[in-house]
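Notebook entry, structure prediction.
Reason for the run: the old model in the group folder had no record of what sequence produced it. Starting over properly, with the input documented here first.
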Amino acid sequence: MQKVTRCATMFAALALGACAGGQSSDEPDPNIFPTRYREEIVLALSNTLDDATNIRDTGITEPALRTVGREQRYAVCVRYNPRDQGRRYTGVTTSIAYFFAGRLNQIVAATEQCSNADFKPFPELQNICHAARCN
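New structure, fully documented this time:
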């Protein structure tokens, strides 16, 4: 009886160890380089801006690892001058896009995070057109 109990205990310990080991391998790497970052940002902003057409003064940075809390994540700074619902330009806005596992996680207003950013042209954002909304 003692051998059966020991075998059962060892089997249970091995099974639980295998389960615990499997959980960590299922977690994605949070810092996969975001290869489609431009497309994801254009899609997100085109769905959230009041008027996503005729955007001016666009700029974007390359993805770079930045400290967020106690961790590092890929982030991209984006600059743009959108129009409001009355088709008036609202002024240059700077946002920061955070990525998790290579995908866009959130875009928020940037404060000092993008103050020294090296912006490159971002024609994909400037050229958004939604058929009837392009006038």
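Summary: Residues 72 and 79 are 22 Å apart (CA to CA).
The old model has been moved to the deprecated folder.
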